[in-house]
Design goal:
This protein is α/β, with parallel strands linked by helices and 252 residues long. It has a single domain, classed as Spore Coat Polysaccharide Biosynthesis Protein SpsA, Chain A, CATH 3.90.550. 27% of the residues lie in helices and 29% in strands. It contains 6 helices and 12 strands. Strands 1, 2, 3, 4, 5, 6, 7, 8, 11 and 12 form a 10-stranded mixed β-sheet that branches. Helix 5 packs across helix 6. It is globular, with a radius of gyration of 18 Å.
Length: 252
């Protein structure tokens, strides 16, 4: 276990088995897989959007988990900033890892974080960005094209200036004091494995949710909202690669 490391998780109803049409049912639910992968973190703080899938029974099995139930839709910036404040006040953490409930780190990313903590000063502003393995219609195939080849800030020094910025309901990010101050930026060549696109029904649901958010929350007209969100369903020029069973622990 890495001392001084807290992870903040945002999730809702992750206590389900995530798999594509050609996959075997996994051994663990998504929530169990995520929490098992975070065994190296000293503290886990969860913002749960009122899950009604039995997640509360899973949480009880993990002693280092603190859960805050949140009504949805909720203001992600406000929630994240309150969780950062909680981590500073009630844990001895110096570093923070931010993940959604359908994201896990590949093994090399975990090793990267451990080495980074060993050789860097948490009193200095640090941002580490990871690549994305967006699994696509399968637990073993991921996209490597267009918007599915990106970097995202996920790991930071828990500096007093660190806070969440951006849209209240989506597209937020962490920065130090101002929206574009990321401190020292490190682009890791390791990856976050993202399960959001494994089940096509879930993909269609995310598309509809995106359209709703753009029209109702961001006040876009229907056509503009659909144009913004259509990338979610786009498979034009799709390129896939294979996730090795050695990239992550446990079942894939």
């Amino acid at each position: 276990m890495v001392k001084g490391l807290v992870v903040i998780l945002m999730l809702k109803n992750e206590n389900k088995y995530v798999y594509g049409p050609g996959d075997q049912k996994p051994e663990h639910t998504m929530l169990e897989q995520v929490l098992n992968h975070l065994h190296f973190c000293e503290h886990i703080i969860i913002a749960d959007g009122m899950s009604d899938d039995g997640s509360d029974e899973v949480y009880k099995r993990y002693k280092n988990v603190k859960v805050f139930q949140q009504e949805t839709p909720f203001n992600e910036n406000n929630i994240l900033n309150s969780l950062l404040d909680y981590a500073r006040k009630y844990t001895d953490s110096k570093w923070v890892l931010y993940l959604d409930g359908d994201e896990i780190l590949e093994n090399l990313a975990i090793l990267y974080i451990k080495k980074f903590i060993k050789f860097n000063d948490p009193a200095i502003r640090h941002t580490v960005r990871f690549g994305y393995m967006n699994l696509w219609r399968s637990r073993t195939k991921y996209r490597t094209d267009k918007f599915h080849d990106q970097l995202s800030g996920k790991f930071f020094s828990l500096h007093p200036d660190l806070k969440s910025f951006g849209s209240a309901y989506n597209n937020h990010h962490f920065a130090f004091g101002t929206i574009d101050n990321f401190g020292n930026i490190y682009n890791s060549k390791t990856y976050v494995v993202h399960y959001a696109w494994v089940d096509w029904n879930h993909i269609e649901k995310k598309y509809k949710q995106c359209v709703w958010m753009e029209t109702e929350l961001n006040k876009k007209d229907a056509t503009e909202a659909e144009n913004i969100c259509k990338v979610i369903l786009d498979e034009e020029g799709i390129r896939l690669n294979t996730l090795s069973k050695f990239d992550i622990d446990g079942d894939v």
